[in-house]
């Protein structure tokens, strides 16, 4: 009897998982990206709260936003499976490697998406659930299915989906849309082009091979370097607005200006230095930059009251 249960549960597992293990499924959710998205959502929740954080919208909100974002990332793996197969950076992903097939990945995305949306709808509020699903549609549908292959401005427009989490955090706590979190959305929106184009310069041959019209492929490396520099300068200016609008204090002004100037410094080195060195340095710095920027906003919020 015990043996038969083992055999059956073993074959059920094989039916569900195929050749894959949990690490493969986990990898498809782009966990590092989702962690940073959740930090920005948490900051949205904190700036929406006076005093103690309300635990239910915060905990359930983060779990729900994390699950739906993970679902969006899995859908991106399904839609992009053919180009991922041909790009050096992505050919080892679970679908191109053949350990997870598209139907299983779709099933996984459906479970994550539905559970996440139900949690947000029932235990946080319908507005947050709808905006989070809008983020999923924006990333997996509008960006991945359409914009990515349609225009070199793909990531500028598609960047809105990745920029939305601070608003989701805010609506999870307040149940309404206000101007404050939109300033944080603007920060991420302006940060995304230099974040991605630095990497795209380094990986331009990958994108050219699969005919994806990323800016360095369509307009060349020099043009893209200039665009990266201009966006870091724009980010410096946008970074002043939360202080000028009275949302953040002096600590924010100092911290964000220092971080944004460092980003400009990387972009200048990239513009006039060898991209073989500075493209990936700038990309890696962009991630540390956004993480620290949102930590500064958080600390400033609690210190400046
Ligand atoms: C349309 C918008 C965006 C595009 C096109 C984009 C593109 C990329 C790409 C191509 C990578 C490399 C992944 C790899 O190494 O396989 C990456 C990495 C990363 N991105 Fe973005 N990104 C966007 C928005 C964001 C946003 C909004 C965040 C967070 C708030 C973010 C956080 C990260 C992090 C943390 C990594 C490192 C992942 C790792 O090391 O595993 N990205 N991004
Ligand atoms: C609910 C919500 C906020 C959803 C969206 C969140 C989300 C997962 C954003 C990710 C942004 C990102 C890593 C884009 C890269 O896609 P790519 O296809 O250009 O990169 P790739 O080639 O590495 O797959």
From TrEMBL:
Q: Which domain of life is it from?
A: Bacteria
Q: Which GO terms describe its molecular function?
A: protoheme IX farnesyltransferase activity
Q: Which reaction does it catalyse?
A: heme b + (2E,6E)-farnesyl diphosphate + H2O = Fe(II)-heme o + diphosphate
Write down the Gene3D superfamilies for this protein, in alphabetical order: UbiA prenyltransferase
Main localisation: membrane
TM region positions: 33-53, 59-79, 105-123, 129-147, 154-177, 183-202, 223-244, 250-270, 282-303
Where is it located? Answer: Cell membrane
**Which pathway, metabolic or otherwise, does it act in?**
Porphyrin-containing compound metabolism; heme O biosynthesis; heme O from protoheme: step 1/1
Print the keywords alphabetically.
Cell membrane, Heme biosynthesis, Membrane, Transferase, Transmembrane, Transmembrane helix
Name the EC number(s). Answer: 2.5.1.141
Membrane topology for this entry?
Multi-pass membrane protein
What does the miscellaneous comment read? Carbon 2 of the heme B porphyrin ring is defined according to the Fischer nomenclature.
Family classification: Belongs to the UbiA prenyltransferase family. Protoheme IX farnesyltransferase subfamily.
What's the stated role of this polypeptide? Converts heme B (protoheme IX) to heme O by substitution of the vinyl group on carbon 2 of heme B porphyrin ring with a hydroxyethyl farnesyl side group.
Name listed for the protein in its UniProt record: Protoheme IX farnesyltransferase
Instruction: Look up and give the organism this protein is from.
Output: Neiella holothuriorum
């Amino acid at each position: 009897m015990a043996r038969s249960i083992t055999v059956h549960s073993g074959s059920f597992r094989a039916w569900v998982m195929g050749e894959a293990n949990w690490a493969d499924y986990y990898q498809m959710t782009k966990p590092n990206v989702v962690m940073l998205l959740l930090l920005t959502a948490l900051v949205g929740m904190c700036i929406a709260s006076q005093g103690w954080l309300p635990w239910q919208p915060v905990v359930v909100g983060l779990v729900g936003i994390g699950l739906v974002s993970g679902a969006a990332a899995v859908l991106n793996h399904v839609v992009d499976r053919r180009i991922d197969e041909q790009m050096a950076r992505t050919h080892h992903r679970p679908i191109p490697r053949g350990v997870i097939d598209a139907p299983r990945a779709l099933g996984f995305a459906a479970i994550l998406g539905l559970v996440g949306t139900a949690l947000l709808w029932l235990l946080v509020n319908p507005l947050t659930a709808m905006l989070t699903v809008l983020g999923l549609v924006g990333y997996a549908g509008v960006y991945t299915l359409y914009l990515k292959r349609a225009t070199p401005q793909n990531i500028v427009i598609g960047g809105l989906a990745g920029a939305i989490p601070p608003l989701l955090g805010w609506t999870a706590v307040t149940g309404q849309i206000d101007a404050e979190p939109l300033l944080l959305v603007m920060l991420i929106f302006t940060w995304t082009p230099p974040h991605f184009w630095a990497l795209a310069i380094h990986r331009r041959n990958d994108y050219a091979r699969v005919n994806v019209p990323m800016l360095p492929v369509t307009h060349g490396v020099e043009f893209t370097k200039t665009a990266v520099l201009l966006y870091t300068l724009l980010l410096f200016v946008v970074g002043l607005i939360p202080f000028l609008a009275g949302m953040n204090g002096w600590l924010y002004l100092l911290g964000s200006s220092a971080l944004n100037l460092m980003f400009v410094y990387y972009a200048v080195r990239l513009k006039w230095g060898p991209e073989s060195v500075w493209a990936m340095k700038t990309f890696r710095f962009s991630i540390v930059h956004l993480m620290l920027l949102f930590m500064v906003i958080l600390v400033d919020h609690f210190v400046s009251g």
